[in-house]
Please model this.
Amino acid sequence: MNQDAVKKRNLRMFPPGTIGRDMEYNLVNNFLLTYVLFTRQLTAGQIAAVTGLMVGARIFDALNDPIMGNIIEHTRTRWGKFKPWLMIGILTTSAVIIFIFNTKLTGWPFIAAFGCFYFSFSITYTMHDISYWGMIPALGSDADERNRLTSLTTLCAGIGGTLAGVAIPLFTAGQFALGGNASEAYGRISILICILAPLFLFITIFGVRERRDDIPEKPEPVSLRGIVRTIAGNDQLLWVSLTFLIQQIGNGLIVGGIGSTFIYFRYGYSGGLYSLFTIVGMSATAFLMIFYPSISGKLGRKPLMRILLILSLSGYAVMLFAGFFLSSGIEGFWVLTIGYMLSNFGQFGFYLIMMISILNTVEYNEWKHGKRQEAVIASLRPFLTKFSSAVIVVVTALTYVLSGVTVYTNQISSLENQAAAGTITDSEKMEAISQVISGTSSGQSLALLVCMTLLSAVLMLISYLLYRKHYRLDEETYSRICRELEDKKTAEAKTGETI
Model:
């Protein structure tokens, strides 16, 4: 198969592989805390334990992700260095997710099981996440090709995340809850997602062909010192990683649990409302996913980021206006949703630019140090994403505790469990939950709104300023580095032929 045919094949087969993976990630990252709050009655100590376990697992990832990246970098099999870990990782991840969302444990035994799950998930998801994103630089270094591949892959990731973001709340809360209660609904949803995830990733595993011309026959042994040296020796990787981390914390506050809880308390306990909020909020990003290569090519990344920043800040302002000045009726909900669509469009554009910016440091590392280190560098993106999710959990938990939200979520959880046990009917459950929500104050719901909008806006502004000042691998510089690397390889090849 010639090179053009391989490129076309990879362009078709690589992006769909992440649809199911992102459905799994969305389930755990955006709905795990909601699942815990609305299916278990938790004391303040147990909430603190859940938060601590999540943060501890993310600190564990600080070592796990780069080490896994280095292990992948030095893997040698007939199937390449990425595909074995894709297969092992997706199957084990699916197994641990099914366990935690289907266990009947409560109280401290559940907290113990939760801890085992979360650390297991950190290990297993890392296997296929680093392998998947680390494969992109191994599929080609042409700037246009990488932009197209990354944007299509992000489109598929968005499809997976959106499908999960719509289906999970719709079928776990309110009148459409599968099995009539949240506990049963989350169990069924988790099984379905964990069946789909491997099937989608098999498209990538059995469909793509990676470059292997840059793989040395005798790789250096894995060492923590080597990992740290790779990361610390790449100044552009360090700056873009810091920028990405700050942006991701702000980006995830709405979907990390605060957004759904705010909508339930302000507009009613209906998963359909939050699904609609998610659909509209994500819809505009599809345009950016499809047309990013041409838009970025005409405007450049930094000018595009300025436009995206203005859109996002405007969106957050609209959301605050809806929360403070409009009623809890459908009009206020729609204004809030339009504001989220604008803010999410800008945040997603930032995410896409950061993704490409991190991947472009692979060639910078090769130009500066003579080694690409694809998997090691790619390991920073998932680590930063997961570490940001830990910070989001801390912020979310603190917001819930300080605003007194857990008093009401415990009451809702009790009603959900009564419905699951059959002691009350679904209609009785919904009526009682409506009464619980009516007891919340406007100050409590507005505290959620301020956290998920004002804090997000400030963090996005900080990330923009850092990127603009410190990231130097613009389009022109990156192209020059790629040309110099290609010229060097050509010269080395000619020298070898002469000898």
Notes: The chain has 20 helices and no strands.
